Amino acid sequence: PLYEFLDWDGVRTLDASPLVEIGAHTVDHVSLAKVDTSAMHHQIDASVAELAEEVLGGYGADRRTTARVSG
């Protein structure tokens, strides 16, 4: 492949650096402008939950500031 994706071990390595900030986006890489508010919340919340589970060991996303979509 032209580019390789970062695996979770790579994400955890980056997260350990004070120079890098890791943030969630969406689960399915959908355009949030094209989905309803409920789908927006699901896409962002599920992405934050997966990131918290993988990087923070399930301790939740409160270690980082998380942007919320207002409906």
Task: List low-confidence stretches.
Answer: 63-71
Helix content: 25-40%
| N- and C-termini, Cα separation | 39 Å
Specify Rg, calculated over alpha carbons: 13 Å
Which of globular, elongated, flat, extended, rod-shaped describes the shape?
globular
Number of helices, counting only DSSP H or I runs of 4 residues or more: 2
| Main sheet attributes: strand count, strand direction, barrel closure | none
Instruction: Indicate the structural class.
Output: mainly alpha
Work out the number of β strands: 0
Element order: H for helix, E for strand:
HH
Task: Explain what you see.
Helix content is 39%, strand content 0%. It has 71 residues and is an all-alpha fold. It is globular, with a radius of gyration of 13 Å. The model is unreliable at 63-71 (pLDDT under 50).
Short description:
The protein is an all-alpha fold. Helices cover 39% and strands 0% of the residues.
Write the layout of secondary structure elements.
Blueprint: H1 8-15, H2 37-56
Q: Which terms would index this structure?
A:
2 helices; 0% strand; 71 residues; mainly alpha; single chain
